[in-house]
Prior knowledge:
With 171 residues, the chain is α/β, with parallel strands linked by helices. It has helices at 21-34, 48-53, 73-82, 110-116, and strands at residues 11-14, 38-41, 61-65, 86-88, 91-96, 99-104, 121-123, 130-135, 138-143, 155-160, 165-170.
Amino acid sequence: MVPGKDFTMKIGIISDTHDHHRNVKRAVEIFNDAGVAYVLHGGDIVSPFTAKAFADVENAKFIATYGNNDGEKLYLNSMIQSFGGEIHPYCFRGEVAGLKVYMTHVHHTIDEVARGGDFDLIIYGHTHKQDIRTVGNTLIINPGEATDWLTGQGHVVILNPADLCYEIVKL
Length: 171
């Protein structure tokens, strides 16, 4: 057994929802079916009304970062706080399910942060393209867009924090 890691919990990872309500509802269903304990959103939720849908993920902590398209930041923050979630400007640094996590929207510093070796998991969005790779001992995940507007397919990732195995799920 690895100290500090819960072998039963899962993490749902999503980014760039851009008010695509149908795909957000589908993501919530997937997260509920998987029994995720956390939902990590890499930015560009866009509106408070989209954020509200994440309140329907059962028994999960919602953590997000702002993206470059998020509007109404004060109301977006208020909405997320109303269901016990949190949203961070620029980046989130913290522990999630025994993992040291760095999450941001943009990709500009991802490789540099990973080479520093301070984090087990780095999550980002913005590019709308999936990027899942390892740099040193750090797993980097961009789940790609949750919309289907640029790539034609929306996706989320379900991560097991105990062994860093993941599943890419099409929306």
